[in-house]
């Protein structure tokens, strides 16, 4: 109350209105203070307890700090020492364990080597080999330990190598005792050497060995364990191929002989006379089967455990893997290839070869020499149709090439009366098979004699009389025979043979011009024969496909079997060759005429002699060509060729004379005499036929083949005519002279022949 009164007295400035509210608030504050005092009284014991706890905690903290300091100073040091000691003991334990394991491996190695030596002395080769492998395994284990190297390992490796080689030496000696090859001094596998070769197998088991393991099993299994069996078998297989199997395939007269004695099996050979150059597949298979049966009985039926394989394999399987591929190739190349028929009629007989091949492979499979999936030999035999077609095509192309490279000058004569002699082909669609006959006289003109059809005209598809190479005749005979073969062959073979014929013609197109290039350029007769050959082939190519298209496979019967596309190429080939020869002859003619001194100043004896000599040389050349082409070229080709060459000479002479600026009367007479020689003797070079009487017809037709003949005769008239006769020959541009010479050429001749007079001027005025 006193506090309130003091406050009120001090705050007298307060309004009386607010005095009541403030009194109320002060009353509530008093209550609060009372509660605070009460709570303080309750809190004070708790505070005292907390302070006591704080003092206790501080004491514990001091104790902990003392303990931590003791641990860090003493216990941690002792702990580090203990860890170091533990680590050292652990490492020492690991080293001791490693040393113990190494010593154990060394002990194993030593025991294995000792047991190996003991077993080797007792000739227990399998046990000896196994102990060597144990020693090798122990040594390999020692060598693979990282961070641990012993100098003794190198010595141990050397010891192991020595023991291995020592054992291989012993096994090799045993192998040589078991398998004995008696070979001649010569290393060649000739027939004489093979006859003196023998194979002795000392693998015949005795009664004691029948109970225990035979030596051959022990030796081979030891080789297998040591990893040397493959190399030994490979060497044995190569000897077997070289001295036994391949000779039996190559030499028909070689016969194998077997002999069994109490302790050895002997394989030798004998040679008997044989009329066959090649053995039949059946005989070869029987011989080889006999060899494998003997080897299987005495050697190859040995079961062996191969390292890394669960099952046992026989020696026959291993040897078969090593030699079968080479043996199969030898049988194919030296036996089956030669047995492929050369004629389709013999294909049916080839079933015996296929059956024999099947039996041969079956026998080898039973002996485990051949695996079940190895049928290369049988596949080749069964694919006989394809091989027959390939062989036939090769033979045909080889024969054709030989004909193409033979001499061209050996010729035969063909005439329009020549005809084809072919076997009767069945009617298209009849289904009959063609009966093969050998064509007797080969076709020359492509006319086929169809007995069931009306005959064609005699001159239809005929060639004119000429000469062709006998080799080309034989080539076409080969072509027809091959196409006849194709008509009775399988579809595949028919197609192959057909395209082989196309290759023959393509080969001719490429080979003949190249192979005979020098001769064709040098000799006119050979060029003419080659021209005829090409025309002869082109002639037959026109109808060759049509003659057989209805008798070939459906693949070719729809128009594909045609050779017409080759006709232009062959015609062009023949013409280009002959044209090249014509250019050579033209060049020689012009070269000879170039020595005539332009036919000028004929009043000079030297000039006249040179011109006369040139004329004579040209005529001699033409006569020589006429002789070498006589009875070779067809008459029409002969006449055109000779006419072209004679025309070249006449045209050159006319050109040279027309170009003269001055021709005296004596020059004109001598030029006329030279021209008369050409006119009189020129037709005589036309001798296409051997019969002189028949040649007169072609000699009279010289103007037909020599374009400048009438020009040349008109030139002769001018050389002997006067001005009026020349004007009359011109006849205002309508006479014979105007038909051969131009107005400028006639005027030039008049100016050269006649002096400049009023008559010459008048004559020149009329030439226009």
TrEMBL record:
Superkingdom of source: Eukaryota
Keyword check for Phosphoprotein: yes
Membrane topology note: Peripheral membrane protein
Centromere/kinetochore protein zw10 C-terminal domain: residues covered: 461-591
Domain ZW10 C-terminal helical as annotated: residue spans: 613-767
Principal subcellular localization: nucleus
Domain Centromere/kinetochore protein zw10 N-terminal stretches: 29-111
GO cellular component: endoplasmic reticulum membrane; nucleus; RZZ complex; spindle
InterPro entries membership: Zw10/DSL1_C_sf, ZW10_C, ZW10_C_2, Zw10_middle, Zw10_N
One GO BP: cell division
Keywords for the protein's UniProt record, in alphabetical order: Acetylation, Cell cycle, Cell division, Centromere, Chromosome, Coiled coil, Cytoplasm, Cytoskeleton, Endoplasmic reticulum, ER-Golgi transport, Kinetochore, Membrane, Mitosis, Phosphoprotein, Protein transport, Transport
Subcellular localization: Chromosome, Centromere, Kinetochore; Cytoplasm, Cytoskeleton, Spindle; Endoplasmic reticulum membrane
Residues covered by the Centromere/kinetochore protein zw10 middle domain: 171-404
Record's subunit section: Interacts with NBAS and KNTC1/ROD; the interactions are mutually exclusive and indicative for its association in two different vesicle tethering complexes. Component of the RZZ complex composed of KNTC1/ROD, ZW10 and ZWILCH. Component of the NRZ complex composed of NBAS, ZW10 and RINT1/TIP20L; NRZ associates with SNAREs STX18, USE1L, BNIP1/SEC20L and SEC22B (the assembly has been described as syntaxin 18 complex). Interacts directly with RINT1/TIP20L bound to BNIP1/SEC20L. Interacts with C19orf25 and ZWINT. Interacts with ZFYVE1.
Family: Belongs to the ZW10 family.
Protein name: Centromere/kinetochore protein zw10 homolog
